[in-house]
Amino acid sequence: MRVGIIGAGQLGQMLGFAARDLDIECRFLDPSPSPPAGVCGEIIQRPFDDAAALDELARTCDVITYEFENVPVAALQRILQDVPVYPPIDALRQAQDRLYEKQLFTALGIPLPGHHAIGAFEDCAVAADKLGLPMVVKTRRLGYDGKGQFVVRKPADIEKAWKTVGGQALIAEQWVTFDMEISAIGVRNAAGDIRTYPLTRNVHRDGILRTSQAPLDTPDLEQKASGYMRQLLEHLEYVGVLALELFVRGDELLANEFAPRVHNSGHWTIEGSATSQFENHLRAVTGLPLGSTRSLGHAGMVNLIGEIPNAARELAATHLHDYGKTPREGRKLGHITVVSETSAGRDELVDSVSATVN
Ligand SMILES: Nc1ncnc2c1ncn2[C@@H]1O[C@H](COP(=O)(O)OP(=O)(O)OP(=O)(O)O)[C@@H](O)[C@H]1O
Ligand SMILES: [Mg+2]
C-alpha cells in the first residue's frame, strides 16, 4: 500500500513515522528543498498545484491525503478520477474559507461566535455595530498561527485593521472571553466507524499553540463536543482525522474552526493514546480498522517555537520530537510530550517543561 501525502512538513513526518509500523509506504509532494518528511519517503519537489506532479502522485499511489490545508481544491478535483482523495475535497473546500466553515457550523446547529462577512471597508462599521467591540477581523482564507488577524478594540482601530488585513475577503468575529480553549479530535473511516479522542485543553500565546493537555475531566463538555464531532464527520461523509477547535464559556461550547487533517493539538496522542492520531488517520484513509483512542495516562504537550534550547534535550522522562527544521522566529520546530499517572502530575510537568524551554 502506498499513500501519497500532499505536504511534507512535521505533520507529514509524523504520518510517515506511523506509516512504517503499518507497512505503508509514503510518497510526498512539497515544493520546499529539505522538508521534515524527507526522512520518511520520496519527495516530489514541485508546487502543490503542479499538474504533472499531482498526476504522478495519483498514478503511483493507492490513495492521496494531505497534511497542508491550502492545497488548491481544483488541483485535487482533477486527480479524483484516478485515485481516492481523503479527507473528502468538500471538507477541505469548506475548511479553507472561514465564512463557509461558519455556514457549515450554523447549518448543523453547532453554536459559534457572532460574525459578519466583510467585503468592503464600510462593512467594518456595520460589523462593529452588530457584534460590539472588541471584535477580531480575520482573512477568510490562508490564515494560520493567528496570522491575518487584527483585534479591533475601539472604533479608531477599524482603519488600522483595514490597512493591515484589508483588500481581501474578511470576516469579523465577536471577541469571546472564554474560560478555556479546547479541541475535539475524531476519526472516521469509509465504513462509517467513528472514534473520538478525549478533549484536549489548548493554550495559545500570540495566536500560536503553546501547550495541550488531555484528557480533561469534563464529561458534560465531552458529550457535547463528541456530538458536534459526530455530526461533522457524518455530514461530510468524512474519512480521516478531523480536529474541531472550540471555545469554552461557562457550560457553553462555541466552534472556532475545524481542520481536515491531523492537528498540533493531537500530538500528545503519539505517547498518550493507545493509537496516535497519525496512525488512525492512515488507518482511516487506507481502509484499515480504526485503533482504540483510549488514553494511556494524562498527557501534556509543549510546542518548541523559534528554537530548541539545549535544555530541552537534557530533560529526563519526556519525549522530545525534533522536526529537523531550520530555526526561525515563531516557527514550530518540535514539541515535547509528557505522560503522567495523574492530571496534577501532568500539569506540573507541563509547567516545568514550559519554564525550561521558553
Ligand atoms: N473570536 C475570538 N475570540 C477570542 N479569541 C480568539 C478569537 N478568534 C481567535 N482567537 C484566538 O486566536 C487563536 C488563533 O485563532 P484561529 O484559530 O482563528 O487562527 P488560526 O490562524 O487558524 O490558528 P491555528 O492555525 O493555530 O489554528 C485562537 O486559538 C484564540 O486563542
Ligand atoms: Mg485555530
What does this structure look like?
This protein has 358 residues and is α+β, with helices and mostly antiparallel strands. The chain has twelve helices and 17 strands. It has helices spanning 10-21, 51-60, 73-79, 89-95, 98-107, 122-131, 157-165, 219-235, 269-272, 277-286, 310-314, 343-357; strands at residues 2-6, 25-29, 42-44, 63-66, 115-118, 135-139, 149-152, 170-174, 180-188, 194-196, 200-205, 208-214, 240-249, 252-259, 298-305, 319-322, 332-340. Strands 9, 10, 11, 12, 13, 14, 15, 16 and 17 form a nine-stranded antiparallel β-sheet that branches. The chain has a four-stranded parallel β-sheet with strand order 3-2-1-4, sandwiched between helices. A four-stranded antiparallel β-sheet has the order 5-8-6-7, with helices on both faces. Helix 1 (10-21) packs across helix 10 (277-286). The longest helix is centred in the middle third of the chain and has 17 residues, at 219-235. Residues 113, 136, 143-147, 173, 175-176, 181, 204, 207, 209, 245, 256-257 line the site of adenosine-5'-triphosphate.
